[in-house]
Write a sequence for this structure.
């Protein structure tokens, strides 16, 4: 039955079956309960649809503006796909008083089919759970803990120079994934497990001094999202295959501590997240993994919250992370749509302390002539396209080597990383001396 875990959810038979069955369920609900009530039923359909739009819009407004569940609006495409499920439920409730038990059961089945269609489409938009295994977390759960044999021994050097390196003996066909706890020794952050990608070259007898890429996931979310929505191991294996087994060691730490927490990657009243990513994580990587400890060979990247975080770290700590990949990042960190709520949550009564830590403010005051920045945003994600253009202009003025791309046919989804990560890695390769 393992084949079930490999069934794809964002395309293929399940995707198309949900579309066909969902439309069939919708058609069933649109048919008048009796031939004599067609006009009245048509008016009820219009009313149910209008009510569904109003309800979704009201809940969305409350989540953003009252409860501050998300700092940015939920994409319009996602909200539109929620509407059919809500409208279907309203139509079912309108049918119930005059329906037999058989028709009620059929109506409930129809609603479930429409809801399944909405769920599949929302998931396809974000591109997070591409397979059943991603949805259930089974593949991630099987990733083993980093074993001592793969850890750096005290006093060991970084490895042989990368320039001109050639492996001695055969290399594995692909890299491996491991997980490990990165303690918040200096920061006190109670982080979830980090995930690590070790490239084929890590297993060479003459192991080279490998570069490091630190990646941060979105919020809500966590480190495993880079393995599911980001399909990280596949992208890294492809890069390694094109570079003779060479690829960066990738570490995906957790600066938030839970699925819904938002530390904004800052040292604030909320948490010491900056300290975690600028001290605890680099210290752990340098002491635990066989990597190049010269930070010129390090980079940090992320998606959404993680993209915002990456640029924060790249502007606050260019000596640690001189190369930055920001996929769908914001102009500045946020907890709530209303900026004042963000400031009060992190720096109550001290707005200037928040302001001076934002990338735009730092880039006005400092030069980054040795740093590089790779930016993307989905072409249909208009709010984040605006952020991309603002950040790209400010970064160029501050001396960054900038590449900025609006990714066609995408919104605020993992496609903004998947469609550009090969090019982003090649951008880093040029800085790291990995060649073609």
């Amino acid at each position: 039955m393992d084949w079930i875990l490999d069934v794809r959810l964002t395309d293929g038979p399940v995707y198309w079956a949900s579309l066909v069955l969902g439309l069939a369920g919708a058609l069933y609900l649109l048919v008048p309960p009796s031939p004599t009530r067609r006009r009245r039923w048509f008016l009820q359909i219009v009313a149910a649809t209008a009510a569904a739009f109003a309800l979704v819009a009201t809940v969305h407004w409350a989540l953003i503006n009252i409860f501050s569940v998300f700092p940015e609006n939920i994409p319009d495409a996602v909200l539109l796909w929620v509407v059919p499920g809500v409208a279907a439920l309203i139509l079912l409730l309108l049918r119930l008083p005059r329906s037999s038990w058989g028709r009620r059961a059929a109506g409930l089945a129809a609603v479930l089919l429409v809801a399944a269609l909405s769920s599949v489409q929302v998931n396809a938009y974000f591109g997070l759970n591409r397979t059943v295994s991603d949805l259930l977390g089974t593949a991630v759960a099987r990733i083993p803990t980093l074993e001592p044999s793969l850890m750096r021994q005290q006093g060991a050097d970084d490895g042989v120079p990368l320039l001109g390196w050639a492996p001695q003996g055969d290399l594995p066909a692909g890299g491996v994934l491991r997980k490990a706890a990165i303690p918040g020794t200096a920061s006190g952050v109670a982080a979830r497990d980090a995930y690590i990608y070790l490239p084929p070259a890590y297993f060479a007898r003459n192991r080279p001094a490998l570069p490091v890429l630190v990646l941060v996931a979105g919020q809500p979310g966590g480190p495993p999202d880079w393995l599911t929505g980001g399909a990280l191991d596949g992208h890294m294996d492809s890069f390694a295959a094109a570079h003779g087994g060479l690829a960066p060691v990738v570490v995906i730490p957790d600066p938030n501590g839970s699925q819904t927490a938002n530390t904004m990657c800052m040292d604030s009243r909320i948490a010491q997240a900056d300290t975690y990513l600028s001290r605890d994580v680099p210290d752990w990587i340098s002491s635990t993994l066989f990597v190049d400890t010269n930070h010129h060979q390090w980079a940090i990247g992320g998606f959404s919250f993680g993209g915002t975080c990456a640029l924060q770290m790249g502007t606050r700590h260019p000596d640690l992370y001189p190369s930055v990949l920001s996929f769908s990042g914001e102009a500045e960190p946020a907890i709530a749509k209303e900026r004042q709520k963000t400031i009060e949550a992190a720096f109550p009564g001290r707005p200037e302390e928040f302001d001076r830590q934002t990338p735009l403010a730092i880039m006005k005051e400092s030069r980054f002539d040795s740093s590089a920045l790779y930016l993307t945003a989905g072409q249909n994600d208009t709010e984040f396209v605006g952020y991309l253009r603002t950040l790209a202009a400010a970064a160029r003025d501050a001396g960054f080597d900038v590449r900025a791309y609006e990714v066609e046919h995408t919104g605020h989804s993992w496609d903004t990383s998947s469609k550009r990560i090969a090019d982003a890695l090649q951008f880093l390769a040029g800085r790291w001396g990995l060649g073609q």
